[in-house]
Amino acid sequence: MSESCSGNCDSCGESCESRGQESLLAEANPKSHVKKVIAVVSGKGGVGKSTVTSLIASSLRKAGKSVAILDADITGPSIPKAFGVSECTAAGDDGILPAVSRDGVQIMSINLLLDEETSPVLWRGPILAGVVKQFWSDVIWGDVDYMFVDMPPGTGDVPLTVFQSLPIDGIILVASPQSLVSMIVSKAVNMAQMMKVPVLGFVENYSYFECPGCGKRVEIFGKSSLDRTAADFGLPVLARLPIDPHVAELFDEGKIEDADASGLSGVIDRLKML
User: What is this structure's pTM?
Assistant: First the structure.
């Protein structure tokens, strides 16, 4: 199997040991045509993965691309809140039409299907994984240039299902500066490599705080260890984002599309190379 293998033998002319094995890829909705699927991953929770996902998606949408977010964090969904959406557009025999944000980002999340957004999702792993596959197969995404899969943290059932069932073109790994993160990040990278999914690079969130008065940068979480970890794997650090209370405020207000995402230009450039 080559490094660029997506697991879909139907569209491949190469002869390799994997040919003939049963594909685990889930079928997309017949009315969905998604060009690139990018998983946004974190080894642990609390590093701002959903914020980074939202900012990347919003930035590409402003650049004229058709963009979608599949919220695979079933037990901790936050994407609908970030974009200020609360329900799907419609549902019919052909599938579900996702919610659409103010600027046109398509969104599917379990919170769009619950009667109350605060209701807990008390499901075991196989059911969670099944819901994610349904979001891929049962939702009418239409023509999409980039779909981002906002993953739950860690290396459990849902990430495994996403890597096996969706045609992932690459992952972006979000981390914070603490030294502990290097070990956890390594687990996530190793999982991606085991699943033959290419890692596009890292985004370091909460990298520093810039004083609004004097402009001095303070490394709240200490000096970053991410460069060393990235070098060990031969991967780039695509962006370093500051602690920004204004971005957090916009997220909470459902106005993430108003946030400045210029700090993610390295990520956007990398995605355009796919």
Answer: 0.89
